[in-house]
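Q: I'm writing a short methods note and want an example of a predicted protein-small molecule complex. Could you take the sequence and the SMILES for zinc ion and return the bound structure as tokens? Please keep the output block clean; save any remarks for afterwards.
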Amino acid sequence: MSALTRRSLIAGSAVATLAAGAEPLAAAAPPAGKQAPGIYRYKIGSFELTALYDGIWYRPIGDKFIRNAPFTEVEHALDVAFMPHDKLETPFTTLIVNTGKKLVLIDTGTGGQIAPTAGMIGDNLAAAGISPKAVDQIVISHFHPDHINGIKDKDNALIFANAEILVPEPEWAYWMDDATMNAAPADQKLTFLNQRRIFSDIAKQVTRYTPGKEVAPGIVTLAAPGHTPGHTVFAIHSGEQSLMVLSDTAQHPAIFARHPDWQAAFDVDGDQAVATRKKLFDRAAADRMLVTGYHFPFPACGHLIKTASGYEHVPLPWQPTL
Ligand SMILES: [Zn+2]
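A: Understood, no commentary inside the block.
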């Protein structure tokens, strides 16, 4: 028996169709033509969590993307992950935590202001049956635009009108300092200006927290500097269960979990980002913790296991019940 190839499979099925004398049937129902809503619910103790998909950015990359590895190695890693060489798949997944007393949103998505393929959080909130007005708290991990732009719409109106906004104090201190902005390279100026667009006129409504603080019962913030100076992750605990919200400790795990030493061009302090990544990933792997990452493939939750050369992300399978 000859080996089954894709060509012989297609040819074989065509022969079988002809042999049966059957015309292929036209579909009776029109195609949907669009994707289903991007929401996924799971529980941590008594807390109900909703992963909300905001979309994806196909981020253009080149040979400067990883500072400390030759691009041929990066291209090989992209091949292994079935990704093109010139774009990094960068999905965005925000998280709603219903503690039973409060509705907390961790990071806010792109606000439809980064890529035409992102900005779906409003539609997905509606699909999840959550009104933006019902969100009590927004907790921000760091000040990159894909995490803060969803605080406001394109016309600068607050999307979550009733939410208290909590941001890491060291992020505010770094990015909102005009001397830091003026000393930054020209290509980073837009990042600083965007932060001022989001925060300057609502500064009095913004609460700055020190990483380490519990911002809501069961949601503890932890300093995770490197990607940005005030980059923060979150430990969510309820009952006997817990979840580590890794924020941008690693971007796509097929690249940065498998190659934890790689420093991306967008890390403010690459050495510190790598040290933080390894510390948190080692802990998550050793404790077999459930983790979620903002740029992990949707629904972005799963586990990390340690391998000979790095880590592997094991996605959580779809679960039909909570
Ligand atoms: Zn990000």
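A: Remarks, as requested: The first strand starts at residue 39 and ends at 44. The two ends are 47 Å apart (CA to CA).
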